[in-house]
Amino acid sequence: MFSDRFDQLVQALRILPSVGPKSAQRMALHLIMKNREGAVGLAHALNEATSYIHECSICHSLTEDEVCNICASHDRDAHLLCVVESPADVMAIEQSGSFRGKYHVLGGHLSPLDGIGPDEIGIPYLVQRLSDGNITEVILATNATVEGQATAHYLVEATKHLPVQMTRIAQGVPQGGELEYVDSHTLSQAVHNRMRMK
Amino acid sequence: MFSDRFDQLVQALRILPSVGPKSAQRMALHLIMKNREGAVGLAHALNEATSYIHECSICHSLTEDEVCNICASHDRDAHLLCVVESPADVMAIEQSGSFRGKYHVLGGHLSPLDGIGPDEIGIPYLVQRLSDGNITEVILATNATVEGQATAHYLVEATKHLPVQMTRIAQGVPQGGELEYVDSHTLSQAVHNRMRMK
Question: B39 — contact with chain A (CB < 8 Å)?
Answer without folding.
Answer: yes
